[in-house]
Amino acid sequence: MSRSAEPAPDKKKTAEEETPVETLDQQEEAAAEEAQAAEKQNGEEEAQESETDALRRQVEELNDSLLRARAEFDNFRKRTQQEKAIWNGVAQERVALALLPAKDDLERILEQPVDAQNVDTLLQGLQLVVGKFDKGLAEFGVQPFESKGTPFNEELHDALTTMSDPGQDEDIVLVEHQKGYKMGDRVIRHAQVIVNKPEQDS
Asked: How many distinct structural domains can be found in the chain?
């Protein structure tokens, strides 16, 4: 009697049984890696937010500093303008007080009758007045400078015209029409002068 044929083994089932399956440790390791990646991402986001907040605070602090500096500058400018106005007033007052005595003397001279007998006295009085003017100007550092007989200098002189004097060098000031003045080393008024120039041959 023949033996019945045995059924062939299921190849599909055998392949599945042979396929490796993830162990529990591998699953836990994968989950840990995912959690670590998520935690890292959260940390980076928190760091970005923290950096953004810090930058925002710096901007606000700089803006506040700018506003305070602008307010301080405005206050300084106002104080400076007020002080300048006060000092200008004080300077004008000092000038007036320095020159008023000379004006008083002029008024007294003008009150005197003019005749041949007191002309010399009046001239002497006028000379005294001029001296008082010079004294008042000197209190502010204002001094006249001599021009006649000196070489013409554009920084000191304004030439009104020219004349010819063979006995003088060329460009020498022959006539001082109006005195020049300095305040310290600074020229505050140029002298008006006539300058020596040789005659041109026709």
From this structure: 1
Report if residue 88 sits inside a domain: no
* pTM for the whole structure: 0.54
CATH number at residue 198: 2.30.22.10
Determine the residue type at 131: G
Number of CB atoms found within 10 A of residue 154's CB: 8
Q: Are strands 173-178 and 157-163 parallel, antiparallel or unpaired?
A: unpaired
Query: Which region holds residue 141: left if phi is over 0, alpha if psi is between -120 and 50, else beta?
Result: left
Q: What pLDDT digit, counting tens, does each position of 54-90 carry? A: 888 888 888 888 888 888 888 888 888 888 888 888 8
Tokens matching residue 111:
């009150």
Beta strands in the chain (DSSP E): 142-145, 157-163, 173-178, 180-183, 186-189, 191-196
Query: In which domain, by residue range, is 160 found?
Result: 144-202
Contacts of residue 37, defined as CB under 8 A and 6 or more positions apart, other chains included, come to none
